[in-house]
Amino acid sequence: MMSKNPKTYLDYAATTPLDPRVFDVMGPFFTSKYGNPSSVHTFGQQAEAAVETARESLAEFLNCSPMEVVFTSCGSESDNLALRGAAFAARQIRKANHILISLVEHHAISHTAEQLSNVFGFDLEYLPVNEYGQVTGESVKERLREDTAVVSIMFANNEIGSINPIREIGEICRGKNIPFHTDAVQAAAHLAIDTSTLNVDLLSLGAHKLYGPKGIGALYIRQGTPILTTQTGGGQENNFRAGTSNVAFIVGQAEAFRLSKEEQLNNHAHLIPLRDRLIKEVLQIIPDVKLTGHPTDRLPNHASFVFKNVGGNELLMMLDNAGFACSSGSACKTGNPEPSEVLNAIGLSRDWGLGSLRVTLGKYTKDEDISRFIEILPQLISDNRKMRGF
Ligand SMILES: Cc1ncc(COP(=O)(O)O)c(C=O)c1O
């Protein structure tokens, strides 16, 4: 049920509002510039030019060649293409059958990997994480095998915000010639993504975490990385992904990434003090609370907690009624009353893991939003515990 109270949005890791400047550049591609980029005539050429300009712009964001950018329909599709495409190509070319992912991947990776294992017979192995949900280079080194088809480790975690040592892990994989994919859907909104130094072969992006439209994404495929396309049809996207290009969204995505990079430092200056204040005060004023994820090595907009003996889903509803939109983990998990795989992986017991709260900030978050949030949270936690008999 929707509450009637005005809402303060504190769920920017789930999605972000579209930046009006992005909306403006998309507009003409719905109305006057509606050609199919594959058509030969002037309308088609106009659309094709827009798609290729967008590709160049995204390549600039990633510091790669435009040929290495493939447009997809979302971050999940990018993850699917990367993992399936690399796994099947490695099986075909060198009979590789082993897939290595971390225990805290987004479902777009973990469920894809499970299907590759359960239906297609790949040997799936999970990398453990430390108490902050991070993978170490050492543990990757220990598990890499000659027949490893692909390694996939997320850049930054959506639920608990921790950042992984991607460059170091990539170096280890590269040393063994094993394709390395990272899901940078959350990270790209806040961190520099320079593919010339990151040692990654495949990297997933999505536009809606950084004020771009929902339903558009991209996959960086380092030139020469073996990938078996998973969507066959026309030769679009360099034969990596068939389907008529979603021109307006491709143009909007490029603008969102361009603006994000241009404004990244300003956004950090705005977000980090707000995040740090929120974390500090919640830890100070609420009994039986823990920060989840790394205390400093975390996304600049991301605060996440667990509260002992609290029902996370009920807390979300109480917050919603009080005018705050937050999340208990990833948006996709809301509604599931069990602790998430991520919270289990970092070793939290059920009495802690059930009471998770993710508060993610954005460029429209104001200092007074945090003040009001901190003012109401202790009472809601206390009411929630009482309702549960604690
Ligand atoms: C880390 C991560 N990967 C992948 C996705 C999926 O992206 P999309 O919503 O564009 O499919 C998300 C979205 O929440 C995410 O946080």
Question: How is this structure best described in words?
Answer:
The protein has a 7-stranded mixed β-sheet, with helices on both faces. Strands 9-10-12 form a 3-stranded antiparallel β-sheet. A two-stranded parallel sheet has the order 1-11. It folds into 2 domains: 8-17 and 264-387, Aspartate Aminotransferase, domain 1, CATH 3.90.1150; 20-262, Type I PLP-dependent aspartate aminotransferase-like (Major domain) (Aspartate Aminotransferase, domain 2), CATH 3.40.640. The chain has helices at residues 20-26, 42-62, 75-94, 107-118, 137-143, 166-175, 247-262, 264-285, 312-321, 341-345, 350-353, 367-387; strands spanning 8-9, 69-72, 98-102, 123-127, 148-152, 180-183, 202-206, 217-221, 289-291, 302-307, 324-325, 356-360. The mean pLDDT is 96. Strand 5 (148-152), helix 6 and strand 6 (180-183) form a beta-alpha-beta unit. It is globular and about 65 Å long. Helix 3 runs parallel beside helix 4 (107-118). It is α/β, with parallel strands linked by helices and 390 residues long.
**What's the story with the biggest beta sheet?**
7 strands, mixed
CATH fold label of the largest domain: Aspartate Aminotransferase, domain 2
* Rounded Rg: 21 Å
Distance between the termini: 27 Å
CATH architecture of the largest domain, please?
3-Layer(aba) Sandwich
Helix proportion:
25-40%
Number of strands: 12
- The count of domains is 2
**Residue-averaged pLDDT, rounded?**
96
The DSSP helix count reads: 12
Order of helices and strands: EHHEHEHEHEHEEEHHEEHEHHEH
Say which molecules are bound, naming each kind only once.
pyridoxal-5'-phosphate
Structural class: alpha/beta
